Hints:
- This protein is mainly alpha-helical.
- The longest helix has 29 residues, at about 150-180.
- It has twelve helices and four strands, in the order αβαβαβααβααααααα.
- The strands form two sheets. A two-stranded parallel sheet has the order 1-2. Strands 3-4 form a two-stranded antiparallel ribbon.
- It has helices at about 1-20, 40-50, 65-90, 120-140, 150-180, 185-190, 200-210, 215-225, 230-235, 240, 245-250, 260-275, and strands spanning about 25, 50-55, 100, 180-185.
- The protein folds into two domains: about 1-25 and about 60-190, Up-down Bundle (Fumarase C, Chain A, domain 2), CATH 1.20.200; about 195-255, Orthogonal Bundle (Ribonucleotide Reductase Protein R1, domain 1).
Amino acid sequence: KFTNFLNELSLAKKTLENADISFGKMSGAVGTYASFRTMEIERIVLKRLGLNRLPITTQVVSRVVYSNYIYSLGLIATVLDHFAREIRNLQRTEIDEVRESFIKTQVGSSTMPQKRNPEKSERICGLARVIRGNIQTGLDNICLEHERDLTNSSSERVILAETSILTHYILLQMNSVLKSLHLNSEKIKANLYLRKGAQCAENLMIELASKLGRQQAHELLKQLSNEENFIEAVKTNAVIMEFFTTEEIDRILDPINYTGLSSQVVEQALGSLKK
């Protein structure tokens, strides 16, 4: 989970880094240099400001540039929203695998003293919605009339600052959440065994396919997966137990033995992300 989140955040960060947004213009009221009759002033000013020149402009720089910036921040916000939702769901009472830190003076609810809400994660999710809404406004601002009208001006005074500030804020919030996130290892382990081996049915199917054929193995295990205790249903099935011992079934259906190359995948991903 954490490495996937880091990968998504890295991809979003690269989108922002690659966003071509450093542009300016001094080409007159409609982009024709009618007053100056030279491009030299624009070249000098933009160079001093560290900005690039677009091949052509109207009264303003194309709002595609601005929209690209807002979208890039929206992508970062949505990745944070994605992981904050995961934290919120994993903190649900019936799952209880992670918990945000909760100080003694903190109040989850004014009427329900037992409440321990993942407040920061909830805040991240809520503000990400505002940021995504600003993406739509940024896109709408591309559609200026003729060489430019003023419909973009009022909204950009809000969305550019707001999107930048809120993205920075929820990054700080997520950083705070992760620094003090509590992992409930006992509940994680308990949840692994909650399905009584059913989540490892593929592992058994692959082993069984060499005995019965894949289709028959799949159908048999599909039927057994409807039983309340999958591993016991497997152990009492004569067809399956003709090929396996009880110890082999325990090994095949133990979630600890069904992690594949996860450690290797994580190490490779982390190595790649550090570059």
